[in-house]
Amino acid sequence: MKSNKQRRAEIKAHRLERAARAVALQQRQSDARLLRAEGMVAADTALLAAHNNTYGPLPTFYVDKAFTCRDCGAQEVWTAKQQKWWYEVALGSIHSTAVRCRACRLGTSRTRTTTND
Question: What is the pTM of this model?
Answer without folding.
Answer: 0.57
